[in-house]
Design brief:
Elements: H1 2-9, E1 14-16, E2 23-31, H2 33-36, E3 46-57, E4 62-75, E5 82-97, E6 108-111, E7 117-119, H3 121-130, H4 150-180
Parallel strand pairs: 5-6
Antiparallel strand pairs: 1-7, 2-3, 3-4, 4-5
Bound molecules: zinc ion.
Amino acid sequence: MQHFFAMERLSVYNIAFKGLKEGVHEYDFHIGKSFFDHFEGSLVEDGDLELIVILEKRSSFMSLHLKFSGTVTLTCDRCLEPYNQAIGNEASVFVKFGETPSEEGDDVIWILPDENQINIAQTIYEYIIVSIPLRHVHPYDKKGVSSCDPVMLKKLEEYSRHESEKSDERWGELKKLLNNN
Ligand SMILES: [Zn+2]
């Protein structure tokens, strides 16, 4: 139910198809922080993406072609500072009508038979998430220099050196104990 209410608030991502002429219809959307706020525990909290949706309506089928590009804000695995990750993707999905989905698949959006609009928020969110690379690090500039925060890197290096010294000390003490027995 909570999920349902969250989707209600995302009504800006509704595409009303009833009454549309057969053919191709284009829609533009902007995806920013308010979009990601609707997805609890999201890997992404902020972003700046342009999305183009092309709805193809025919007498026998309806499909959506989704294309997006822009950046999402992630936390760098290396220096732990936020950075903007460039992403982009496109996908085609079929729109099918039914009370319950009769087939599984990522490329189908199921809507109720009496529905007159499609909410694409969840689909878009999933495509954004799968477009994010596994490794999250600041990009390198043209000269091949990492854009990681040098101050943070230095702090982290000092911290890890300190931690390994502490563990060496503990290890030394343990060895002493073992040797004495
Ligand atoms: Zn970094």
